[in-house]
Amino acid sequence: METTMILPFSQLPFCPPKPCRSSKASPFRSWKQRNSRPTRFNCQKMYVPGFGEASPEAKAAKNLHNFFNYIAVKIVSAQLQSYNPEAYKDLMEFLERHSLNDGDKFCADLMRESARHQSLALRILEVRSAYCKNDFEWDNLKRLVFKGVNEANTKLMRDYVSETTRVESEK
Amino acid sequence: METTMILPFSQLPFCPPKPCRSSKASPFRSWKQRNSRPTRFNCQKMYVPGFGEASPEAKAAKNLHNFFNYIAVKIVSAQLQSYNPEAYKDLMEFLERHSLNDGDKFCADLMRESARHQSLALRILEVRSAYCKNDFEWDNLKRLVFKGVNEANTKLMRDYVSETTRVESEK
Fold first, then answer.
1. Which chain B residues are Cβ-neighbours of A152 within 8 angstroms?
2. DSSP secondary structure string, A3-34?
3. What is the tens place of the pLDDT at every residue in A27-39?
């Protein structure tokens, strides 16, 4: 169930294959060498419309950016709760009035609230940088996504088959 | 501006350091060997509350799962638009009535709509699996997130400093 059902890319009109150079031009290069040019490789990717000049990676990075800001706020608030109740209260009150959906706007507003809030904001900036670089398990994320997609695909097909088989046998 | 402002982890009450074994127990092990046990390494991560038994990685993977489903729908609709206008129309009409927020629910509903829609759903399952495994640039995602966090942190601090400097000089 990997890519067998997908239309071969050469048949798709939106990704015209680069014309192959004549093998006469370099008769001694192996098949692998001839076919491993970056231009060919890029062209074999599926075309994803609707991202304009950005890319799916940039879109996902933007979402993760806000997610790491959310995580940093969680981390800092948990740290403050135990050793600095006053700063914790400041942060909680601020959180009630400001959304975390846009992480950068949240930090910009927090910085301008008061001197005490400013140091909280600087700390959140530090933590989000340290968290994404040192603590977040990128390989684990990739593994979990692959596993999730595989399992969900199997489950969706199994559920559908068992459902339709039941309906057939009840007829 | 890396981790200098973060409280040393040993001072934080929620992550008690594992008691070090007496060096007498293994006097010939180097410092590096004694300190490279996985238990110590795990403990040096920042504590992230609020994820219950899940993890930030699992949460991010779930979001990416739905994102890849969205991408797969975009890819399939672009492919159909040019060579199968009828199937394209089916998909567009279905999209108007169903949300893409929950990718698995979308596919489950699409499968049960009609036999024609069923093959569309199977194709979306194929494409989302192939896309996340072969086409999505995971290393690029990581690079873009690091770059985005660094640049946003610098910009937030620079904007704040230039703003407050201007206010000071206007006084």
1. 65, 103-104
2. STTSPPGGG-TTSPPPPPPPGGGSTTS-HHHH
3. 344 444 444 444 4
